[in-house]
Amino acid sequence: MRNGKANGRAAPRAERIAPTVVRVDGDGGFTPLAHAVGRGPLVEAARETGMAALAIRRTIHFAALWPEAEALAEQGLVALTVTSSPPYLAPAGGRRPFFGTNQMSFAWPRKGRPPMVFDQASAVMARGEVMIAARDGKRLPEGVGIDAEGNPTTDPNAVLKGAQLPFGGHKGSAIALMVDLLAGPLIGEVTSAEAGDADNKDGTAALGGELVLALDPARFGADGPIAHDERLFERMLAEEGVRLPGDRRVKARAETPGQGIEVPRSLFETIEGLRTG
């Protein structure tokens, strides 16, 4: 996650710098605002050419990526988004943070149903989940991270001072590297390591970038809105215990307005402290 300018003065600007490329200068503001500014031009470019990219620069990404991807899938486009962060993740074989948790999200449109969307970090566990475990005094599963000396640990506080580990060892490390390149040098932005060098030097955190890819299925020869995705999903779900990525989120979204949510007391007290402090 990155923190920085959030004073309401950010004025993102979108420009189409090539037939298939839209660029947004986030002006130091939050990424969702920059994405909202660039989404229209991105959709237009994808419809015209079949596939297009949105390069978001100089922004602060502070949350999950799935809303950006889902917003495009709701317009019938396949979407892939990636963003990096300051270093929290040790590369395979390493003992010190070098990569960010380097998120990615993928969204697939479905006719008459919510899009299929997943959002994941390159780490075994998202940074926020490690922070929640530390807040609530819980231990982590084995393999999530190491302490400042490079020793395996299940203590979330030690992991926060040490480094998280990539999922699947070298596989997750390679994906973190890919995300670093796509959300950094490809679009003229910083890498995770460079963001770490700049982080908190002036009381704020480093800005960074996000790359969004959008593909129009109609331009790829799909039979109808999408060729035969539902047959794939049906065969996948035929096995007991299997669910589509994001299904739990869709279900919770429908139930929460009526049932509410449970908030841990530690979080409630933190929020109250911010409200009254």
Question: Outline of this structure?
Answer:
With 277 residues, the chain is α+β, with helices and mostly antiparallel strands. 35% of the residues lie in helices and 20% in strands. It contains nine helices and ten strands.
Distance between the termini: 24 Å
The helix/strand order is EEHEHEEEHEEHEHHEHHH
Q: Using the alpha-carbon principal axes, give the shape.
A: globular
Percent helix:
25-40%
**Total domain modules:** 2
List how many beta strands DSSP finds: 10
Major sheet size, sense and barrel closure: 7 strands, mixed
- Beta-strand portion reads 15-25%
Low-pLDDT stretches are 1-7
Total DSSP helices: 9
Quaternary organization: single chain
State mean pLDDT (0 to 100 scale): 90
Strand order of the largest sheet: 1-2-3-10-4-5-6
The CATH class name of the largest domain reads Alpha Beta
Radius of gyration using CA atoms only? 20 Å
Describe the structure.
The chain has helices at 31-49, 66-73, 127-135, 156-161, 170-183, 192-198, 229-237, 247-259, 265-276, and strands at 13-18, 21-25, 51-59, 78-83, 103-110, 113-120, 145-146, 152-153, 163-164, 208-215. With 277 residues, it is of the alpha+beta class. The chain contains 9 helices and 10 strands. 35% of the residues lie in helices and 20% in strands. It folds into 2 domains: 13-123 and 167-225, Malate/L-lactate/L-sulpholactate dehydrogenase, NADPH binding domain (Ribosomal Protein S8, Chain: A, domain 1, 2-Layer Sandwich); 124-165, Hypothetical oxidoreductase yiak, domain 3 (Wheat Germ Agglutinin (Isolectin 2), domain 1). It has a 7-stranded mixed β-sheet, with helices on both faces. A 3-stranded antiparallel β-sheet has the order 8-7-9. The model is unreliable at 1-7 (pLDDT under 50). It starts with 12 loop residues before the first strand and ends with a helix.
